[in-house]
Amino acid sequence: MSADIVRAAFSASDTSVELAPYPYSRCMELARSGSLAGCFNTTPDAHIRAEFLLPQEVLFSDDILLWGHAGDAAIDDLDAIRGKRVAVTIGYTYGEYFDSYADIQRIAVRRDINGFRMLQRGRVDYVIAFRGTTDALLRDNPELVGQFKALTRVHRPRLYLTFSRRHPRAAALLRDFDAGMRQIRQDGTYQRILANWQLSDGQSSAHGSTLQERHNNKTESP
């Protein structure tokens, strides 16, 4: 879906770009060094904001979910999985609560599909992954359908196309992207892309608060 949005935005601003697939961590490193003009989908933290250029326009928001086996019980706090093995994709951030939680074993994988394969084979206990990414990989790997279940919503961040501070075209491409995003939101193209992927603009199909929101509420309570 992100690629569809990015292509549409640049097309709307009459800008020619080439999209190429990379593992996320590799993509971000190439963008940081200036070998690539940009990389998506990024959930910015303080480090990313310092190292990269961020556009005004957000690609979309999506749920970060903790996935387990189909028969596993729902989870309402990370303390429920203390000591367990969780597959995480190299380079991704999952919200301050999850990223700072020390009492789980993080098993690093290069791609989300690798984490789900490990969960299938019992090599990890859980996988953390975006809803949209998981939906896409299950469409591409139908043999996995029905084996996993989302146990809780961990976080719901905004995702960005992040631009390099070192690539010579990045600043101009950022301006073109923002202009194109505003255009496709205005003419309905953006909403049609979300509908094609069965995602509504800014809305989650899951109910209730995320673990990150509950953690924030506890932290802010007197």
Automatic annotation (TrEMBL):
Listed Basic and acidic residues bias regions: 212-222
Protein's organism? Ectopseudomonas oleovorans (Pseudomonas oleovorans)
Q: Where is this region: Disordered?
A: 201-222
| Start-end of Polar residues biased regions | 201-211
This protein is called Family 3 extracellular solute-binding protein
The record's family statement is:
Belongs to the bacterial solute-binding protein 3 family.
